Amino acid sequence: MFGLGLCGALTTNLVHAQTASPTSTITVQVNKPGAPVAKTMYGLFFEDINFGADGGLYPELVKNKSFETDDRLIGWKGIKGASALSTYTVSSQQPISEKNSHFLRLTATTASPDAGFVNEGFRGMGVKEGAEYTFSVYARRGPGNVGGLNVTIEEPARAQASGPEAPASGKVLATAKITGLTNEWKKYSVVLKPSATAAKARLKLTVDGTGTLDLDVVSLFPKNTWMKRENGMRADLVQLLKDMNPGFLRFPGGCIVEGVTLDNRYQWKETIGDVASRSPIINRWNTEFKHRFTPDYYQSFGLGFFEYFQLSEDLGAEPLPILNVGMACQFNSAELAPITAAGGPSAPAHDHAEDDPTLDTFIQDALDLIEFANGPATSTWGAKRVAMGHPAPFNLKYIGIGNEQWGPQYLERYEPFAKAVKAKYPNMNIVSSAGPSPGGELFDKASAKLRELKAELIDEHYYAKPEWFRENVGRYDNYPRTGPKIFAGEYAAQSVAIGSPDNKNNWDCAISEAAFMTGLERNADVVTMASYAPLFAHVDAWQWTPDLIWFDNLKAYGTPNYYVQKLFATNPGTTMLPVQLGNNAKNGQDNLFASAVADDKAGEVVVKLVNYSPQPRTVTLNLAGAKKLGKSGKAIVLASNDLQAVNSIEQPMNIAPKEEKFAVKSSTISYTLAPNSFTVLRVPGKR
Q1: Is residue 459 assigned to a domain?
Q2: Exposed, middle or buried, 173 (CB in 10 Å: 0-12/13-18/19+)?
Q3: What's the mean pLDDT in 524-548?
Q4: Contact yes or no for 352/280 (Cβ under 8 A)
Q5: Could you give the CA distance from residue 270 to residue 268 in angstroms, rounded to a whole number?
Q6: Backbone φ/ψ region at 217: left (φ over 0), alpha (ψ -120 to 50), beta
Q7: Helix, strand, coil fractions of the chain, as percent rounded to 5
Q8: Based on the structure, what is the number of domains in the chain?
Q9: Rounded to an integer, what distance in angstroms lies between the CA atom of residue 35 and that of residue 528?
Q10: Dihedral, 591, 597, 602, 605 alpha carbons, nearest 10
Q11: Which of 82, 84, 205, 438 is the most core-located residue (most Cβ within 10 A)?
């Protein structure tokens, strides 16, 4: 993510919607089943953009809890008028550990309720009345008579100041006191229960008494996480993912994998082990877009690779990690790691990044990740997984080599990389990259070379206007039926332009994606994985739009695009069924789009229909060769007369599925599609 240079490649003369015909005939050849539909067909793409992890899926409420960011006090402000604090500084004198080498030192010469700091959270802290939040901190008492640490969750009386100091007063929502401080580092914790709900609360810490107090790893974490885990995920966001029935979870990106430079790349080994010892780095999206400048955006890695694998397991999704291939983002520095003769598996293991890593470093990281996921307790990296509380392997089957790199630099690195992985793990399925554009010379050369190398999965990305998705519904109709399978790894219709801050998750985009996805389903023998991108966006802290799921500090909602994805993923079927439109019309002709699958487990035929027309459309559905038909079927309908309609925090279900029953009297069924609608018809019947 993302093809920011895609605009020129996707410019086309776009065709406006035609007038819908009154009646259309669609034949589903139930008695002539096609390819099986892969269990991984519809999945999720996660990247830490738009506060997707910190401030989003990872529910830690304290920003910069360990003072390890480049600007050591990002997220923190001294209380206004804090003359009670004679000094405060970020120190590295006798820290908790080498990995966590900075902490906040406060010295109060006068006892005062304002002798302290506040943390603003991620555009505020969302807390709920009666819910429980665990506050924890590492503290060490210095010279003086500090009696304790006062901990308060409060709602600021007015907007927080933009300067270096924060207002002192606020509405107290919960308070507690940490006592028993010693002159050695020790972890303390207490549970706080707010008396009211607030979307933009803050954490206030003040010194009780006079003297010096050292603080580090300051945390305020909700108890109500997914699966009630101590370092768990935000429950409402995971529930939205779980409800989608995803076949896979691709992570951690996206351009996050590459970094602006190789030093800024995602290094999975730095994201496991003790959460308090994971070192944050600048999020590569922090200053990428001038229109959404976000210099306080860091990755804490509280949500690291172990948590990603665990989340995949919770969702019932195949994990699909994407690893750096020795290339920084080509839209930024395009920095390259040199290729060495060794070529991979014989290279020594590296626990941490080298100053000048070679390709061998990246290959070894991939091999070690597979061992971390699948290795026994007796292996070096398998033992680290076991120590984190997961004795059983994660059963990793897929791994991606590179994100969306292109050109000869990628291919000359991919080849030895893939060879090394296959040499040690011959059953691993490897995902390769066709670049950021869905066409053009570089795309064609990459696709041809990857087929020559017998790649298993080729990752194709497309961000384009809604019209492009409707016009390219037949994209995979003429792809070779043998050789590599296709992973539609990133796609989303752009209502204005690629990368525009004015893009909306409107119904026009969503219904156009639904039309395109009928083409993916009709070609299930070629396409075996597909995922919308990006996944998450904070309403107050996004960099890129459109996005599948939006949230604030308390609530979340699915976009119309989310419901399109959900309807495909929860109605995937097991076997593709050929579909023929009347008069040999092409799929999409007259803005009618169709695909069908058999759901052998449920004993049903599932037909997906898109009517991109402002008029109702009656279709005659011929289920050729269907047996043991039921007397009624179920229709699940997404529709809106307004193509510009959207969902929102205030109206989360403005466009959402509605269900109804319809009569089934024979294998020929008449059904009227609503204007501008995506409809899933489920008919009891066997092939």
Answers
A1: yes
A2: buried
A3: 98
A4: no
A5: 5
A6: left
A7: 20, 30, 50
A8: 3
A9: 11
A10: 60
A11: 205
User: Can you give the C-alpha Rg of the chain in angstroms?
Assistant: 27
Nearest to 141 by CA among 212, 76, 246, 51: 212
Is the distance from CB of 622 to CB of 28 less than 8 angstroms? Answer: yes
Catalogue the active-site residues.
404
Do residues 202 and 117 touch, judged by C-beta distance below 8 A?
A: no
> pLDDT tens-digit profile of 209-254?
999 999 999 999 999 999 999 999 999 999 999 999 999 999 999 9
Q: Which neighbouring-strand residues pair with 592?
A: 611
CB atoms within 10 A of CB 683: 24
Is the pLDDT at 161 greater than 80? The verdict is no
Question: Residue 13 pLDDT > 50, yes or no?
Answer: no
* DSSP character string of 559-575: -HHHHHHHHHHTS--SE
Within a 10 A sphere around the Cβ of 348, how many other Cβ atoms? 8
Nearest residue to 424 (alpha-carbon basis) of 484, 381, 485, 458: 381
In a domain, 65, yes or no: no
644 burial via Cβ count (<10 Å: 0-12, 13-18, 19+): exposed
Tokens 């792809």 correspond to what residue? Answer: 479
CB neighbours (10 Å) of residue 252?
24
Same domain (yes/no): 564, 579: no
In this structure, are 380 and 507 located in the same domain? yes
Give the C-alpha separation, 500 to 591, whole Å.
27
Measured between alpha carbons, how far is 277 from 272 in angstroms, rounded to an integer?
9
Q: What is the 3-state secondary structure (H, E, C) of 489-545?
A: EEEEECCCCCCCCCCCCCHHHHHHHHHHHHHHHHCCCCEEEEEECCCEEECCCCCCC
HSE-CB of 120 using CA atoms within 13 angstroms: 19
d(CA 587, CA 233): 41
- Give the C-alpha separation, 128 to 173, whole Å: 10
Give me 213's structure tokens.
């107090």
- Ramachandran quadrant class, 483 (left: phi over 0; alpha: psi -120 to 50; beta: rest): left
Cα–Cα distance measured from residue 465 to residue 12, given in angstroms and rounded to the nearest whole number: 9
Same domain, 602 and 679: yes
Look-up of token digits 């109605």: 571
Residue 651 neighbours by CB distance under 10 Å: 12
* Residue 237 in domain: no
Class of residue 343 by CB neighbours under 10 A (exposed 0-12, middle 13-18, buried 19+): middle
Question: Does this model's pTM top 0.85?
Answer: yes
- The dihedrals phi and psi of 313, each to the nearest 5 degrees, come to -60, -45
Domain that holds residue 620: 7-34+575-684
